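Our consortium's second objective concerns turning raw sequence data into structural hypotheses that experimental partners can test. To show how far this objective has progressed, the report includes one record in full. It was chosen at random from the queue rather than selected for favorable results. The single chain below, 867 residues long, was entered without modification.
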Amino acid sequence: MSTPLPGSRHSGLIALCLGALALSSCPVAAAGADETPALQKNAAVISPEQVTVTGTRLGKAATGQDVHVYDTPRIEESGQSTVTDFLDTLPEVSLNSVESSALATTVRLRGAISGSALVLINGRRTQDVTGSAATAGFFDLNTIPLPLVKRIEVLPTGSSAIYGGDALAGVVNVVLKSDFTGFTADAGYKFANNTDEKVFSGAAGWKAGAFSLSVLGSYSDRSPLYGRDRAITANPDYRRFGGPNLGSQFFGAPANVSSVFGNLPGLNSSFAAVPAGSSGIGLTPADFAATAGMQNTGSFTSYQTLVPQSKRGGVFASANYRFEAGVELFAELLWSKYRLNSVSTPAFLQLANVPASNPFNPFGTAVNVSGIAQGAQSLSRLTFDDDYLRPLVEARGEFADWRWELTAMDSRDTGAFDIYGQPNTVSLNAALASSNPSSALNPFVDGPMASPVLLASIYSNAILTNFTGHADIVNGFVRGPLMELPAGSVDAVLGGEYEHSKLSRGFETSREVKAVFAEFKAPVLSRTNDQGAKGELLTLQLAGRYDDYSDFGSQKTWQAGFELQPLDGILLRGTHATSFKPPTLYNLAAPSQSSAIFPLTDPLRNGQPVIVQATTGGNPHLNPTTGTSSTLGIAWSPLSDLNLSMTGWWLNIENAINLPNPQYIVNNDSLYPGRVIRAPAPPGSVGQITSVDYSYVNFGAMREAGVDLNADWAFSTEFGKFTPAIAATYMTEFDGASTPGASTVSRLSRANNDGIFAPRWKGMASIGWAPDQPFRLWLAGRYIGPYVDYTPPRRIGNVWYLDASIEVDLVRAFDIDEPPLSGVKLLVSGTNLTDSLPPYSTYFRGYDVYNYDLVGRTIFLRLQLQD
């Protein structure tokens, strides 16, 4: 779909960014040629991203914070091609983000609720929730192409005192490539059984005097993976895997016939299966004698695309200009576009009535038919489009010993979510009742039930949803030394932020947020090491923030931390923080919708059953979800280039926002006044319930605890350099209730249908080897611990995935004396090399989508050119 032209306010910011990106080179050209430094190919220069440290604005290592940093080589070695897929491999990311279910993707740190991790781009806030993910309440990571990413920083701890709302359970900072010189190009081909992906990217950077500019672009095209392409999802009869037959008559192919009353004419059963290979023409009841009392069964999963077809593209441009007065002007522009195409639940008949007038009806009386509407399967599809644009300008400078920064950005996405192939009830009933063979639907055939034209006219309805979400954000702060203590300087950050965000999704709503924040870092005690150098012994950090929202009110958060370094190579650290996630604009303002009629029991009328009309939608009276998080850990470097760390962590989440069960609202009528409507009744009696409002409510508490373990070492031998590493997350507690009225349950190593749980163990062991040759190799094993399936006591998990990669410097490998390019590299990556496919699970898909890899063995070939 086309992208609307930006409005005047957005045009101004975009024009300002483009103007900064295209800064005149005249001041640089004014210098003599000998005064302009020679270009260094692919050499990094000082840039904002290099001083971005997730967890603090102080410009130094975050006090007490255990930040996990994954750089370009680590991302390339993984063999993944999207930001979400890479994050899903990490130990601190307990569950996969399922693109086939939600389409938009997120990151779930330690199994916490969706939307509990704040996404930063280059260390700066972006819009909290993109329009594409409005109903789910998170920023869609699909909008950030992985080829543009330089590194990813993960802070799995609540940090609202630093970054504000949505940093409920952690922060993920995606740092994009910028401020480099030279030219690079990359072409890749990734393939697995029944699916493949083509990936292309290019980048160019220039630096001359005080001016630098870099531009990157990427494009990828991925083919779909269908349910029928994997054994576990192709057939719902799981008896071959030790499970039940979950096939449904409604998805049988061919279809099934059942009587309206009594047995089918001429048969001794009320139902029969349409015989395999049936022509559907000239049938009599005798043709169904062999299938009387039988049913064809099937599943919608085999028809669906479990990995959607996708096309993604993006451009990132950044520019920097330093004026003689020491003031810098920085600008960046990120644009991305992606489109997902997916085949959804196929058209099917559910006890559809076929009158005797239908010329293909062999029974001479009306019958009911259930099964796949063969020939119309491909009509049921959905498309998902998103255009994301994020221009930003920033000015920064110094006065005395203080540094200041002022940033303005507009983050917005526009797109559509369209569902096609929905039945036109009038046309369907007319085709079932038609006496004309050319316009009648034939459900008694094993094959297409009508011509393509007729089927297209029957399944012609579409559900079209357009959305726009955006946020204008202005942020400014000053940073510098506040005072001197005997142990050193007290550093401080003081600042404020303003955000105006808007959502349009069949309705329009907006909010304003104003915030002030402060952060302090104070060395309390110092020590002198064996060499006589003075260093910090004990350092404390304190941060606080006040956010004022125009819709639900204000929120105060604070954070404290310490670092204690009693000996060289040993660091003790800890934090405690409060955090929150505001109700989204969708949570607050989504219009009310009537849903299906619910049968309920009325406790005020002696448990009387009652049929009511239920409505749901936004709730303007919601409060934010709140949380507290604590960490305590040790980092130890007993040898040069050997780093060991262990961090214990605790996370509590309260007042999570959920859609309640209507029965819970009825049972707790006094807690939710006005939600249960009753008919008038005589004095002294209670009227019958007529309707129930089960819109969003604050309810749900989670308790989590665990330990993060990390070890990495780099050492050289006569055979080359080796870099072994181990990282693991071990959870000791995870329980809570996420649905009003439900009891608190353990979610630790126990799969839960609401998708909130985590295996006790998730880890990775890897080793890299760089021999004195033009090769670099990497081997890794990813582990997911055992856990109870969705239906206890069955257990699954305890699975390893083996990944590997090799990088070859082709210039050195072929000993090219005068290469046309300074660098030519071949990268070959393999994921899940043992082709470990999911075992049967009682999850409705037949496998656990949150922990298992359905794609299987994947090979990724890439050729990189550099100049």
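The partners drew two points from this record. The first helix runs from residue 8 to 21. Residues 584-619+660-694 form one domain. Both points have been shared with the crystallography group to help prioritize constructs.
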